[in-house]
Amino acid sequence: MKITIVGFGNIGKTFASSFITSRFIKAEDVKIISRAIPNPNEMLGIPSANFTTLVSSQIQESDIVLLAIKPQDFHAVADDLKKFVSKQQILFSVMAGVSIDKIKSRLGVEKVVRSMPNLGTQVGLGMSVFSASTETDRKDLFIIQNLINTTGKSIYVEDESLINPATAVSGSGPAYVFYFMNAMIKAAEDLGFNYSEAELLVRQTFLGAIHLQSAFGLSNEDLIAKVASKGGTTESALRVFENHSLGKIINAAIVEANLRAIELGN
């Protein structure tokens, strides 16, 4: 199987590295179209001859074309791509906000898969949600899901409109976690710890909590009850969260992120 990756920024490099490291695709079968040719130490073992700054007929040799460019650059790049892509190829997009129908229309293709990955893909712990055009068959979807899963885990949804909520939850989600962690670190500093101590306290707490959730198979409510004894310190903290409607604030924030994802798509 051969693939051309259009765009070699963070997401393009992440997917290229994951495909090659997992041995799903050979380095020599990966071609890169980028604004600039990277330094040899950034080529991930891909032959230097496989890098180019121009879209050409060579793209026709690939079974899959991965669009890893910024959505605002799509229309400019599409003018060149549409001359060479074909209806037999799978167009795999990780562009935020660019719909399947828009990709089909601009490029004159049929098999389009649209995915929303998150930052965790960079360490092999990503969460991706993907959808596909009706012309994409089960074999195509199986191949794409295997590719995506080299970067973490994935969920397939028939309804493409769920990509926007996925963007709001898992796409933006790491930033919410980092925001909460930062607030806890600052609180720990206010209570007397230095930054290094506070950061370790919080990071290890989050790491342990995630592993506990995975290991125990309990609901979050049950896990909270395991920590929050009656009349104890945790119960006091949780009461503050409830009094300030923290759950509703988080819900409102994700709803707002979803609305913005819809706006960007239009």
Describe, in short, the structure shown.
By secondary structure, this protein is α/β, with parallel strands linked by helices. Helices cover 48% and strands 14% of the residues.
Q: What can you see in these coordinates?
A:
- There is one protein chain.
- By secondary structure, the chain is an alpha/beta fold.
- It folds into 2 domains: 3-159, 3-Layer(aba) Sandwich (Rossmann fold); 173-265, ProC C-terminal domain-like (ProC C-terminal domain-like fold, Orthogonal Bundle).
- 48% of the residues lie in helices and 14% in strands.
- It has an 8-stranded mixed beta sheet, with helices on both faces.
- β5, α3 (100-107) and β6 form a beta-alpha-beta unit.
- It is elongated and about 70 Å long.
- Pathway: Amino-acid biosynthesis; L-proline biosynthesis; L-proline from L-glutamate 5-semialdehyde: step 1/1.
- One of its GO terms (molecular function) is pyrroline-5-carboxylate reductase activity.
